[in-house]
Design brief:
By secondary structure, the chain is α+β, with helices and mostly antiparallel strands. It folds into two domains: 83 residues, Orthogonal Bundle (Arc Repressor Mutant, subunit A), CATH 1.10.10.10; 137 residues, no CATH class. The chain has a three-stranded antiparallel sheet. It starts with a strand and ends in an 8-residue tail after the last helix.
Length: 253
């Protein structure tokens, strides 16, 4: 609620019910989850993902665009939609941690569920068991330093995400630059940040560094995109991940 007092705008508490209503409708929830890999998808693709007619989806997409959760891009006669910003993806991941798992009713669904947990994209960075293993490897190799606040473990009031952060070390900078990972310090986006992985309940690396590492692994052919958010490790990737980061298949397979 906004009130005026002495020509000064007063803004009330966050209206989470509005966002909850936008995300909570089943068809819109499926659209948002389909867009969680950070790519722009056509309306026809999203209609198939949501299981609704194109005319029905158009209404849902309009509401998501009006709510600033999804943006639209036009290319020729087609319109493509994507999540507007990382904070939307963060909210979806947080909801996924709270939500009950959907029942698996077929072998195909079971295979997909396992692949999602093994390795997937979370907006523009790597998640799942492979994402968690990557962050662990970066810390174990001292490419990233864990910077914890004093008494963070004994202070539950700090809350998740405030208890620690990750700092890129000089060794890490040199190693990642040698690998070809972009380390643009001019970006306004935080270089390192972490998400709590909804399937593993452990942290994976986000921020500009997390995004740039995923981009480079795809460029190298170590990873390839699969169905929806799934990513797959290639034979070259298995060797590269083990040689470069010490990540063996048993940690993520």
């Amino acid at each position: 609620m906004v009130e005026m007092e002495n020509d000064r705008v007063r803004i009330g508490d966050a209206n989470i019910a509005t966002i909850g209503a936008l995300m909570g409708e089943p068809a819109r929830a499926k659209v948002l989850m389909a867009l969680l890999d950070g790519r722009a998808l056509a309306a026809s693709t999203l209609a198939a993902e949501a299981g609704v007619a194109a005319s029905t989806l158009s209404t849902h997409l309009s509401r998501l665009v009006d709510g600033d959760l999804v943006s639209v891009e036009t290319s020729g006669r087609n319109r493509y939609f994507r999540i507007t910003r990382p904070e939307v993806a963060d909210a979806l991941e947080a909801l996924a941690r709270l939500a009950p798992a959907q029942p698996i009713r077929s072998l195909r669904q079971g295979t997909h569920a396992e692949a999602i947990r093994r390795a997937r994209t979370c907006y523009d960075h790597l998640a799942g068991r492979l994402g968690v293993a990557l962050l662990d490897a970066l810390v174990d190799s001292e490419l990233l330093l864990v910077d914890s606040t004093p008494d963070a473990k004994s202070d539950p009031i700090l809350g998740l995400g405030r208890a620690k952060s990750y700092v890129l070390t000089p060794v890490g900078k040199a190693r990642l630059e040698t690998l070809g990972v972009a380390l643009d310090r001019t970006s306004r986006r935080a270089l390192t940040r972490y998400c709590l992985d909804w399937s593993e309940q452990r942290a994976h690396l986000a921020g500009a560094l997390g995004a740039n590492i995923l981009t480079r692994l795809l460029e190298l052919g170590w990873l390839v995109r699969g169905d929806r958010r799934i990513v797959k490790v290639t034979a070259t990737g298995r060797d590269g991940l083990e040689a470069e980061f010490g990540i063996t298949p048993d940690t993520w397979h």
